[in-house]
Amino acid sequence: MVTPRTNESATLLLAVEAELKAVRSFVDLLAIEQTALSNGNTEELPELAEQKNQFASQLGKLAEQRNTSLSTLGFGSDRAGIEAWCTKHPKETGVANAWGKIIALASEARELNRINGELIALRMQYNTKALEALRGGNDSLDLYGPDGQSSPLSNRRINDAV
What we know:
Layout: H1 7-39, H2 45-72, H3 79-88, H4 93-135, E1 142-144, E2 150-152
Antiparallel strand pairs: 1-2
């Protein structure tokens, strides 16, 4: 990694590296959430959701620090601004490398989050169907009555005096 020439550039590098570390940790957390969802460990989900909220807040603050550094350097405080900075400073590869990794990890995080959302939707569908079966809903299992004919659970009582 090439050392930046100015204090402002050093500040930008520190901000982007801190953001990279946080995004990497966030992706790791999403992978843990996916494992919990896949294994049915729903008791872990509230804690994971709290950690995700904390990371979202931290990532927002780190992006704000990066954007402040970019503004101080005379660049836009957005993705185009950092890309313009990297283009103007091709020898200072630390920021460009860290930024490239952030972009790749953000894409990975987006995909993990999409899959996790689908897993949550599947779990909710399963829970809804299970509750419906327990309550004797329309999609519940049929039972056979004393006459040998099938009848919905909601219209028959199970005779436990058999």
